[in-house]
Amino acid sequence: MSIDQLPDSESETTGRRAAVTVRDLQIATNSGVEVVHGISFEIAPGEVLGVVGESGSGKTTVGLSLLGHARRGLKIAGGTILLGDQDIRAMNDAQLRRLRGSLVSYVPQDPASSLNPALRIGIQLREVLEAHGQTDSKANAARIAEMMREVALPDDPAYLKRYPHQLSGGQQQRVGLAMAFANRPRLIILDEPTTGLDVTTQSTVLATVRELAQIHEVAALYVTHDLAVVAAVATRVAVMYAGRIVELGPADKLFESSGHPYTRRLVGAIPRLSGGRSLVGIPGHAPSPGMRPPGCPFAPRCRLRIDECEAAVPDMLELAPDHSSRCIRALEVVEYQQDEYGDPVDLAPPEVETPVLTLENVVGYYGSTEVLHSINMTLEKGEVLAVVGESGSGKTTTARSIAGLHHDWTGTIKLGDSELAKSARSRSTDIRRQIQYIFQNPYGSLNPRKTIGESVGQPLSVFKIASGKKAETMVGEMLEQVSLSAGYARRYPDQCSGGERQRVAIARALISKPSVLICDEITSALDVSVQAAIVELLGELQRELGLSMVFVTHNLPLVRSIAQKVAVLADGNIVEYGETASILADPQQEYTRHLISDTPSLETATGDVPPAAAPTDGAHQA
Amino acid sequence: MSQAETAPALAEGVDVPTPSVRSTALLARSLRLWRTRIGVLFTLILVLIALLGPLMAPHASDKFIAKPFSSGSASGTVFGTDYLGYDVLSRFLYGGRGILVTALVSTVIGVVLGVVIGLVAAYARNALDDVLMRLMDVIMAFPQIMLALVAVSLVGAKNSVIVLAIALTTAPRVARVARGAAQPVVERDFIGATEAMGLSRVRILFGELLPNILGPMMVEATLRLTYSIAVIAALAFLGLAANPDAANWGIMIQKNQVALASEPWGALLPILAIALLTMGTGLIGDGIARTAAGIDRERGDA
Lengths: 622, 302
Fold this sequence. Notes:
heterodimer, A: 622 residues, eight-stranded mixed β-sheet, 22 strands, globular, B: mainly alpha
């Protein structure tokens, strides 16, 4: 593992004066329930500190507190936040306003909603400068050009006259970065700035952040749920769980010799390129504020739990200079080999020569634009075919055409021997039953007004499979098959977490015993640890039931443990098609190689991208 | 701040739609607000007066008591006599039922019609949407009372005509709100999921879409009821009622207003009644709307 390409290391952190010092920070709701308990860390100038945690761990709340801001309903209840030697908590509103954007700046999650859609980007960049007293318009114009070059965007006046909607997501986020760095702040807070971006765009944005922070000696706090992303950008990482920092240390240490079981489980949940091993999710979920146990909050989900864990919240234990863990068994944990990896998966060979689904010469349109150009692929019985590509590559259109949700296509799609009509409505009930579709966002795919039982049971009545008591029993059994209890049938979607909702969606798709299951980016809306659990479940069900499945994703390493065959899509063309193992080991196309190296995986995180294996014969078709 | 926080294991950056509140829960929760309680109280009192009033009236609604506009003490009644010499209190107790029933029936027809048009338009997402909504715009270009007046003066002041006129002018307003509320729901994936299952359009509209817009529709319905009461009372005030001499709050106001200075009760009682009734339904609607918005805020910050 090499860290020489990273800008900073722990020796400098202690040696130089910290740009930001946070001591014993406590944040509570207005009614007094503590949400964030006793957070302490410091960031040196030029250093990027990654803050990693699942949703609800308090990471964004901590990030915002460095701006002196608490979200509605919350307040900063205790502790100190020092920016250099200024105490942010002692400032009044006017002082805080001056501070924000000049000494501390913030890059929000969604660039599209953080830029004003009605103003040209040049004007928005100028506003940032003018708001902090720089009113010389000539100097500002030069400064704006410089800022644009820094984030690798064109600096010509024509480009600056564009509106945000005329830029891509990645370009918008670069403008966001340019604005954040405009006044040479001392601290910059980045709140998941790459979550909505493509893997390729993400990796260039990450590189820009790292460079700018280093060049301009800016301390940066990078908030994310994805440990693999943090490895690409941060020198040091704070892992948060249930409102506490549970481990703080150099990024490479966390991957190699982590001192906290939770970090170990997070590492185990990252997809990896080499070796088809199953991903391992973390069972259970984090306790919510006000319901946190008196002892270690992770204890109920921990494999290494001993009775003492539940007595009191462990203190931070120093394992090495600049590496500490909040686990009473940290000294043992740090010695373990990373053992949370899953078992190797033997993907059952599909029954060849019995294609269940065939796409021949499928051309898809949006209006008059051709978005899919002659797609050919075959899904054998019991096979999982991964369809991989960046956003806009046509992978979702392909999936929706198969399901009859996108009607505007020509060519032939066959289920077994029967040719499919274009829209689901014009297909027979039995064909509709045989092709089931799982949507990307589990928050949108379940009717919020229906109980889980009603949603899962709906296919039974629509396809006239069962009704009454029999249907109820089937729903209960199905829910148990996706690792939910039958009791979930009475819940409503808003009473379930994202992972649980996606399990419900899987149950709804499987209850009618389909012959083809189409999964459209079903994990991209989920935390990494939840993603692992869902993929694990899907893999198990697929092997158990012998399902044939089309698995659409932008995450190439993710398909390693589940799919026998991969189709790589770029701009509506299949650029590579063949066995998963050989494509991952030896990609023939530049595009595929980029896709692999840009996607955060365990290997890209630790710098061990596997060497290209000897070319295998036959499997590729460019 | 309860169940909303139990491990929402969702990556940040993903659009989380506002969690639903089931309509019954919405009604129950809105009753925690004083404005809703007061609204319910007002409405309940007036509805009881309108429905049960005829049973409690001391006299028949068309029984001559004393000469017109006699005072209470002179005629031996509580509130005196009206322009025909009938008992004001009895006329008042008889006069609510007509208004209430007409308003309720016309509002129900208007809301149902409007919801259907709005849902169809939102789900169609094509030329049909445009045709329907532009048609609604045309109707909405005229004030509700104007169209009602035209209808009544053309066909005559029959109850059915009044009901129909108000229902037809209520529908476009409801349709616009229903379409607006349904539009974002139509784009959600669960509608796609039912389409892939091959659910019929009718079942998608009323089984899947409708439950998701019940909140705003309840608010809209109470608002429309308020307006309907006002319009019907106004029509009666203008003398456009099925029977111009019937016991009717609107007619009472018009005919008795001449004696407002000397014998005010004949006009004042129905004025107060209509004011309290519309205030009541208005407050209920407002309470539901605030509850829905309050729940959104609370959940949104969780």
